[in-house]
Amino acid sequence: MMKKYTVLMITPDYLAEQYGEDTYCAYVEAENVVEAQRAGQHEALAAVTPDEISPYPPEDFFVVFVCEGHVEDIKIW
Known about the structure:
By secondary structure, the protein is of the alpha+beta class. The protein has one helix at 33-48, and strands at residues 3-10, 23-30, 62-68. The chain has a single domain (3-68), classed as Ubiquitin-like (UB roll), CATH 3.10.20.
């Protein structure tokens, strides 16, 4: 059964303007947390390299947070 997940990732240093501060938040549907992470990483890579076939691995987007449901108001201090 597919569930909704929120996946927050850090953009890899070679694609980030400010490494450690550039993040990508994906809202995905997947069967489990592992698949949600993979789907989020693929979405993030497609978002930063939309017009080309990327030579970069999606796994370079470091997952820092995953939760079930679509959390739309994440505040990080």
